[in-house]
Amino acid sequence: MTDTAPVIVTVKGRIGRLTLNRPKALNALDLPMIRIMTEALLGWRNDPAIAGVVVDAAGEKAFCAGGDILALTGARTDDDATPAEFYAQEYRLNTLIKEYPKPYVAMIDGIVMGGGVGISVHGMRRVCGDKTLFAMPETGIGFYPDVGGTYFLPRLAGQTGTWLALTGARLKAADIFALGIATDYAPSEQHTQIINRLVEDTKTGEDIGDIIDSLTGRPGPGGAADLHAQIDRAFGAKTMDAILDALEDDGSDWALKQRKILRSKSPMALKVTLRQMHEGQNMRFRDCMVMELGLSLKFVDGADFAEGVRALLVDRDNAPNWKPARLDDISDAMVAEYFVPLDADQRLSFLDEE
After folding, report:
1. Which position among 138, 175, 292, 307 bears the catalytic label?
2. Which residues of the chain have pLDDT under 50?
3. I need a labelling partner for 28 at 20 to 30 A (CA). Which of 56, 82, 233, 347 fits?
C-alpha cells in the first residue's frame, strides 16, 4: 500500500496497522477507505501472525472528522458512494470492529466525530490525547447520530448520551475518558511511542493490554462531571418539549445555552434521535445497526439532510430552513415512519451473512 493511499496498511511485528491518510480532508471517511479497512481487518482476523490492530491517522488536526458527507450528497464526486452502499458498508465495518476477536486499538487524537467515532469507539482500547475533540453533531445537519450511536450513547452514564446526541456537545480528552468513550489517555507526543512499543514488544493479544496499561494514565479533571445532575434532570425527560421545559426551569446559563442550541437543530432530527436513544437502551448491537440503515436512508430522502449540508458545509450561511420548522408540527406518527423496517431486499446484511 503506497503512502498516497487513503488508508495506509502495514504489518510490523505482530501488529496490523491502519493509518487514515487524508489529512487535508481531516481524514473524513469515504467509501474507498471503508473498503480498505474492511479488507485488511478480514485478512488479519484469523491470521495467527497478527496479535492485534492499531488504527491511527496522518496529520495533527484530526483522527477522523466524520463521514465524507460532501461526496455522499454529490457535492463532490466519489466513486459509487450511493447512500445505500455507503451506509451499508460503513455499518458492516462498525460491526466488524465491535465483534473483532483481537485487540483493536484506536489512537484517537485530534477531531473524532461522526464516522470517526464509529471506527474507534467500538474497539477494545481507545487511547485519547491532549488534542482530542469528540462530538456526534449530526442533528445540526438534519441527520442523527449513527455508526452505532444507537448502542453506545444510551449506555453512557445517566442521560449523558442523550445530551450528546441531541446537542452535538463537544468534549475534550478528560471528559471522554471519564465517560468511558476513551479507555485510556496519553499525552499526544507519546502516541507514536505507544505504537512503536506495541510493534516491538507484542507477542500475544494479552500483551497489548499490558503494554498500553504501562504507557497510559489519567488526564486532568473535565467539566462534564459537574453537570451530571443537570443533564440527568433535563435530558431524562421523555419528550423534546419536556426537555426544553426542564432546561427553562433550570434557568442556569448552561441550561439556557443548551436550550438555544437545541432550537437551532433540525426539529425532525431531534424527535427521531430522542426516540432512537430510548429504543437503543435495550437493543443488541446488530439490531441497532439494522435499524440505523433504515433511519439513514429515510433521512437522506428527507428535506432536512440536504438543507443541513447546504447550510453548514456548502454555502456555510448557518441558516438552515428546516421542514417542518417547529417541533409542534411533527407528530408521533411522522417520527414512527422513520422506524418502519426496510424491505427484506434493502435490509442490512453482515459480512458473515454474505
Report:
1. 138
2. none
3. 347
